[in-house]
Amino acid sequence: MTPAMLGTMVLCFALTVSVAVSIGLSALVGIQVANVNMLISVKEMFSSINKFPLAAIPFFILAGNVMETGGISRRLVEFAKSIVGGVQGGLPMTCVLTCMIFAAVSGSSVATTFAIGAILIPALIKHGYPTGYAAALQATSAELGVIIPPSIPMILYGVSAEVSIGELFIAGFGPGLLIGGALMLFVYIHCKIKGWGKSDGDGRLGFGKAVWQASWALMMPVIILGGIYGGIFTPTEASAVAVFYALVVGMLIYREIHIADLYPILRKSVMASAVIMFIIANAGLFAFLITRAGVPDAIGRYLESVLQSPALFLLGVNAALFVIGMFIETSAAIIVLAPILAPVAVHFGIDPVHFGLVMVVNLAMGMITPPFGVNLFAACTVARISLDRMIPFLLPFVMVIIACLMVVTYVPGLSLGLRDLVYAK
To answer: Are 200 and 84 in contact (CB under 8 A)?
Structure first.
């Protein structure tokens, strides 16, 4: 059964069939080969999405779209620019910092790419940065959307590996700040070397004025994250609060959202949510079948025999996930692999929360690596360029993320220090 499923999946990938459909078709082939009742497919697909934490996904996507239309994104850009925009290379640094702030609400890297990229990619080009550089920077910075909590991939890992989503969220701050800081330092040095961005401070608002204009927007991550860690509401409930707050600010305070705008916002959010849920449903059926076939146990025993130390295990997993992330969408990869790899990590004495951060950071790179990096295609759409024009500028950013991944992997205190402090018994 397993060879037939994997063969079907590889064939579908080669024929450029979408990831969700490829997973679903391979699962159906596995059912036929194993002579399993087809009704089991409906049951397992429904069970995969019939989980309360998953309700956060469509709400966070909707919140991101409301923020984009309601002027919240633009004010966050002005706020970030008032902080770092006054130095050479300040505009690329503004892109990174804005994505960090926006990520603290949206939870989606694609939403971050469109919302922030629509403002900053044209601004970067106007200030003389190459179009390919602007698009590559935006795609990479938006990756922070799935590392800094709240994060949709963290929710999926928590559900799949039965790990506390609240602990995953708070553990994500260390890696997120590390990657954001490393990217800002890199673009600053790079712009100094290239001589770019000497006029980045033009049109920059004063810090006080920028804070005043963005005050309602800046309260959003404070309310959401403060409510989660203060025990006022769960991460799932926080997603609904984010939507409500964004609507109130966008419609009643900034008054940039009108009744006629709601239908396009809802339609866009429903379509994005349906794609993710379809992937989850198909991946859930696929995971059920390979678990039934004993694949996770076999992989676990193999890894235990070949990779005989936690350090080697993490190195091997990182190498495998990097390749997998290039071809399989992040959500699908987490749902399929987390139930397989998390128990093996625990066997090696690795904290499942730490391992979850390693998986999320690694697979998030799949969003900025060809051939199927969704952030790349989103940035190309905004910048109106072809993918090949981004690649030369993209490679240094990928190397920065890989260096940060090694720190996240082998310095568990970066992820677990704040978690242990907050959840200390």
So the answer is: no
294 CB neighbour count, 10 Å cutoff: 11
The Cα 58–Cα 277 span in angstroms is 9
> How far lies 180's CA from each of 61, 322, 339, in Å?
22, 20, 29
pLDDT of res. 372: 62
CA 160 to chain centre: 16
Q: Say how far apart CA 385 and CA 404 lie, in whole Å.
A: 28
Give me the torsion for CA of 360, 362, 367, 371, rounded to 10°.
-140
- Residues in contact with 271: Cβ distance below 8 Å, sequence separation at least 6, in sequence order: none
Angle value at C-alpha 390, between 387 and 392, nearest 5 degrees: 125
**Under-70 pLDDT residues of the chain:** 1, 19, 106-108, 295-297, 299-300, 303-304, 327, 371-372, 424-425
Distance CA 91, CA 138 (A): 11
* Token pair belonging to 2: 């397993």
